[in-house]
Design brief:
- This protein has about 625 residues and is mostly beta strands.
- Among the domains are: about 40-155, no CATH class; about 465-525, ligand-binding face of the semaphorins, domain 2; about 530-630, Immunoglobulin-like (Sandwich), CATH 2.60.40.10.
- The protein is about 5% helix and about 40% strand.
- The strands form 11 sheets. Strands 1, 34, 36, 37, 40 and 41 form a 6-stranded mixed β-sheet that branches. The chain has a 5-stranded mixed β-sheet with strand order 2-28-27-26-25, with no helix packed on it.
- The longest helix is centred in the middle third of the chain and has 10 residues, at about 310-320.
- It is globular and about 100 Å long.
- About 40% of the residues are buried.
- The chain binds 2-acetamido-2-deoxy-beta-D-glucopyranose (7 copies).
- One 2-acetamido-2-deoxy-beta-D-glucopyranose binds near residues 128 and 132.
- One of its GO terms (molecular function) is semaphorin receptor binding.
- One of its GO terms (biological process) is semaphorin-plexin signaling pathway.
- This is Semaphorin 7A (John Milton Hagen blood group).
Length: about 625
Amino acid sequence: MRSLYLFLLSAFCSAQKIPRLKFTLKDSPVLSFENGEKSTVLFHDAGSEQLYVGGRGALRILTYKESEVNQTQVPLLADEKAEKNCRSKPGAVQAECDNYIRVIQRLNSSSIIVCGTNAGSPKCWFLSNDTRLQQDKRGQALAISGESLAPASPSQPAAAIAVEGSLYSALSQDRSTIQRSYGPRKLLRTEDKWLAKAEFVTAALVPGKESHLDEIYFFYNEVNKTAGLDEEPVKAQLGRVCKVDEGGKSLLVDFWTTFLQARLVCGSPTHPQRFNQLHDAVVLGEGRKGQGMLYGIFASAWGTTAVCAYSMDKVTRAFKTSKLKGYTNILPAHRPGTCVPYNSPNAPSKAVLSIIKDYPEIETVIYPEGQRPLYVLQTNDTYTKVVADRVLDASNTSRSVLYLGTDKGKIHKVLQTGGQTVIIAELSPFRRDAPISGMALDAFTGHLYVATEFEVTRLPLADCGQYRETCWKCVLAKDPYCGWDPDGKKCSAISGESNDTASNFLQNLDPEAEDVCEGAAEQVAPEALKKVSVDPTSYIYLPCPLRSHHAIYTWVKDGSKQYPCAMDGHSCTLRFGENAPMDQGLFKCTATEDGYLEEITAYKLTLNAACIPPLSVTVAAGALFLVVTILLL
Ligand SMILES: *[C@@H]1O[C@H](CO)[C@@H](O)[C@H](O)[C@H]1NC(C)=O
Ligand SMILES: *[C@@H]1O[C@H](CO)[C@@H](O)[C@H](O)[C@H]1NC(C)=O
Ligand SMILES: *[C@@H]1O[C@H](CO)[C@@H](O)[C@H](O)[C@H]1NC(C)=O
Ligand SMILES: *[C@@H]1O[C@H](CO)[C@@H](O)[C@H](O)[C@H]1NC(C)=O
Ligand SMILES: *[C@@H]1O[C@H](CO)[C@@H](O)[C@H](O)[C@H]1NC(C)=O
Ligand SMILES: *[C@@H]1O[C@H](CO)[C@@H](O)[C@H](O)[C@H]1NC(C)=O
Ligand SMILES: *[C@@H]1O[C@H](CO)[C@@H](O)[C@H](O)[C@H]1NC(C)=O
């Protein structure tokens, strides 16, 4: 008999909140940290084979080659004096009296800045030629004070980003500040009254149409510990400054003259359910491949997480058009916050600066696309980190793919495009279930770097071999990196850059099901029918292994009678019993998904006529699937 290979026109389509496939990745090059690193910060240059991992007392430089990884450690210890000081402070947390690396950023082609907590008095070092500590004239490692560059403790929230040789640091110390803290441009900071108690999450460069329009975004939570019960104690905020800001001439001389902030909401204006606390955010820049998007992971007061998507067009438009909170006069034509070079005739006047000084928050609240979180991503899993990629699919349409790290060390790979969100797969690369603490995506080499405090690894973005041998298995995966190559007869990576065969690749990423695999069916290896002969009084299970968790599985006897099955996460198992009396006949288990019907397994059951208990059950072929029988003698 041969496998059924049917395309049903009555395709059903539902948004499933669980990953469709689950993969344990055994071949990824995992590196373990013996004792765990309390905090891990990752840095990776797109296109390189190097990953910088900051931990406790050391910087690790990992070099990858295919599935191999080598590590070089650069010890960076806390100063003796600082450590002694730290330990003698009343109420000191002893574990914090060490050097935890918190900042790793590239300043220019030959220099990387590395800052650590240095037992409470932060310090920064420079890596020359990417591997060696820069030295001073006496041959000592060159170091500068990191007081305004990096946080003083491993647990303090902070964010940093380097742009054109300047470091921007956001620190949540006694006073929260956003500063340009190092580099050739004038060092600037926020006025104290601009930021309440801000806990910084991350920062991002948002390139403008021209270089002088580049902006730097900071994401943070404002925490109000004295808020009443009916008030929100946490709100997510987005602050931005212009790269070209050089401070004011007579007003705001040492401060940002372009700082504006906005409230970011993950929820709807009408629905009360809110995810207030921002955990992580990523900006997918506007480019050749599509519109800019902002993705954020937010947590509710109960700790459940959701993902919200924002159009960067809307965000930037809000900053360009909104009224300023509390400012009732008409805004000047040269709006506060506009990016203009320092000596331009359009430089903000004193009047404009005095508006920014007192009213740096815009009135428009930024709501997500669809006015709600991405429904499919409100799962039982708690998300900790997000990165995103943009992929040109087989028809050269731009698709977003999110990688969401969970608190159990898994990664959810998610297709997010138009109105559709699909959890393509859950990837398990690690041995220990610790929260994902860092991710870096390299679209050039097609790799994702992932770390927990115990392990770090890198994974291929296009892992098309996982979808295996048939066209429809490849197509149903809805993985925009992969398509069915009808000539090579395999599931292969689509190279978005080339214009060769990609357009011949078969893919079906949209919910409107269409039988793209028609005529490609012949590769299916007909499943051998398993013949089983059993004693009527014996107890027998028929397993039907699950692969896709989005399919519907059914057992049918002799092509008509349906039998219920017990789902256990791995199998839709037919157990004979009161509801399913044992009978002889042909039992088939099928899976239906997106209009495709697949026969997974089939058994021909015959009952022994004589009441002699059989010594064994004969199972012909299909060695993969075990038939478990317990003989009741
Ligand atoms: C790791 O080091 C070994 C020995 O020095 C070398 O042969 C190998 O190529 C290196 N692998 C990588 C990924 O750099
Ligand atoms: C790179 O940055 C470092 C540190 O700021 C600086 O000393 C060095 O001169 C810069 N090099 C170049 C080529 O700009
Ligand atoms: C970095 O590389 C350049 C060119 O290869 C070399 O001249 C310079 O001495 C190197 N610097 C250090 C600190 O190794
Ligand atoms: C915090 O909440 C209290 C009580 O409503 C309010 O008076 C105070 O202004 C709030 N603080 C901030 C920074 O919003
Ligand atoms: C989520 O958890 C609830 C309660 O523990 C459980 O009933 C439900 O099946 C879970 N959902 C998923 C998709 O695992
Ligand atoms: C795309 O096709 C054009 C015309 O055939 C060719 O000149 C170009 O090199 C191709 N580009 C790539 C990346 O293959
Ligand atoms: C794919 O789309 C991009 C951007 O829309 C365009 O620049 C490129 O030429 C397209 N490639 C092909 C093969 O159509």
